[in-house]
Amino acid sequence: MDECIFCKIVRGEIPSTNLFESGNVLSFLDVMPASKGHALVIPKKHYSTLLDMPHEELKEAMEAVQKVAAAVMSSVEAAEGFNVIQSNREVAGQVIPHVHFHIIPRSRGDNLNFAWEHGKAEQKELEKYAELVKGKL
Does pTM top 0.90 for this prediction? Predict the structure, then answer.
């Protein structure tokens, strides 16, 4: 993807403040952070959604997420917790169509809100969807 901003970062065409790099993964600080220390972890190859990634590359990416999150937590003074956010497709909030994981340090009173309105599902409805999903696993 020639025009993908993350692909350009991987190719070195756009500068980034890199934190970690391995064979298939790159991590860097977000230039539009939700909080201090907000980091991104991306696969070096272009994949639009999580469903497109080969398992081995996804495994490597998740290991990087864990490693970078631990380093961020021990480096960001005010961090009391963190969110890992990964969105797929525009309707779910994916702005850049290249798989990426946000690691967002959190502290009490930071005014960030990733909450949603909780619904209530009946047991029969849960069982119906469980059967549909299990049938595709």
Answer: yes
Cβ neighbour number for residue 55 with a 10 Å cutoff: 7
Domain count, the chain: 1
pLDDT at position 1, please?
67
- Ramachandran region, residue 108 (left: φ > 0; alpha: ψ -120 to 50; beta: rest): beta
Q: What is the CATH number of the domain that holds 81?
A: 3.30.428.10
Strands (E) across the chain are located at 18-21, 25-29, 39-43, 81-85, 101-106
Report the pLDDT averaged over residues 53-64. Answer: 98
- Is the Cα torsion angle 77, 15, 11, 104 positive or negative in sign? positive
One-letter identity of residue 68: V
d(CA 21, CA 93): 26
Residue-level length of the chain? 137
Known catalytic residues are 100
The pLDDT of residue 83 is above 80:
yes
Domain that holds residue 34: 5-134
